[in-house]
Amino acid sequence: MTRRVLLTGGAGYIGSHTYVALVEAGYDVLILDNFSNARRSVRERLARITGRPVTIVEGDIRDGAALARVFGEHAIDAVVHFAALKAVGESMARPLDYFDVNVGGLTALLRAMDGAGCRRLVFSSSATVYGVPDVTPTPETAPFRAMNPYGQTKILGEQMLDWLGRSNPDWAVGVLRYFNPAGAHASALIGEDPHDIPNNLMPFVAKVARGELDRIAVFGNDYDTPDGTGVRDYIHVEDLARGHVLSLEKLFETGQGHCVNLGTGTGHSVLEVIAAYKRACNRDLPYTIAERRPGDVPTVVASADKAAEVLGFRTEKTLDEMCASSWRWVCTTEGDA
Ligand code: NAD
Ligand code: WQD
User: Fold this and answer.
1) Which of 8, 218, 237, 285 is least crowded, fewest Cβ atoms below 10 Å from its Cβ?
2) Cβ(221) – ligand 2 distance below 6 Å
3) pLDDT class for 334, splitting at 50, 70, 90?
4) In total, how many domains does the chain have?
5) Does residue 190 have its Cβ closer than 6 Å to ligand 1?
């Protein structure tokens, strides 16, 4: 029997890659997205990659009536919930929007799922729930530390799901804490495509490589790290997408939830990322050393042991492959609608 999975926010960066991985794994997949941070052309691109028509319902996760319609019209076995606002700086300026979409939207979704008797969910969480971690590589047992409203919404989401599971053991929830997703699909048809000046390192470097921005500002080179610049655990988005397939399989197989980090277990500095991207694009990538970015931490690296043990998840792709796929993607995007 083919299982049907709803992806909220499935037209976005991580959701679109997960769509492909799930279709390739034999799932029947449906997307709900309001296109607040995605392009409509993703439908055609996903169809080209998978060779099948793509079902996208345009709607908002805060709209209970729309959600009830989706669950009423389609027999959905599980949901992967990507839809959220995700910019840390913006969350400081507009916290209510973050509470509204990330917490209110999750509540509306859970209510609709409960009403439809669909109680299997994979939730997009983030390494941001650890704030400034005391231990590196960071295990899932590290305490929650909110550093900004965005991080707080991910902590609240995890806590809501925990209490829900305690209230009704029919709920099976996979909480996936992503570290730093990077790279693009091998087809170069989907990838990360920020509308504005990117906040994150990899898309910023990509725009400098393309000549759209002049130079990279390296936020501090006096951290307690091997070369003084910030160290992060970059994970290829195709590896990340595969993690969702394994998480769903585990939920279906066991009926039990899990909470795991999705990272490689290895850190790379800002200067290492720039050097790797330079190898990929074969261009000069000018940078200057700037002030530290407020709220940044020296090192954030996942302990990848639990995901390996619980899901059998191991990453396969290197930083060089993340940069090469990102470069192929940004060279082929033409800024379509
Ligand atoms: P994204 O912005 O590319 O994707 C989110 C999608 O949700 C977009 O397509 C957007 O249009 C949609 N959306 C937003 N609000 C909606 C609403 N109210 N109703 C319906 N759809 C809505 O982001 P992404 O990088 O793919 O992130 C996906 C998830 O992973 C998010 O929950 C994010 O917080 C989490 N996450 C992302 C990262 C990262 O660095 N990219 C890291 C950790 C966790
Ligand atoms: C990486 C490194 C910067 C930009 C953020 C969120 C986190 C998660 C992933 C959603 C750091 C340095 C960056 C630049 C730079 N998102 N940098 N110049 O901060 O680890 O994580 O995205 O859940 O919640 O906080 O990622 O890509 O912004 O930064 O030097 O122009 O690159 O200081 O060391 P971060 P990032």
Assistant:
1) 285
2) no
3) low
4) 1
5) no
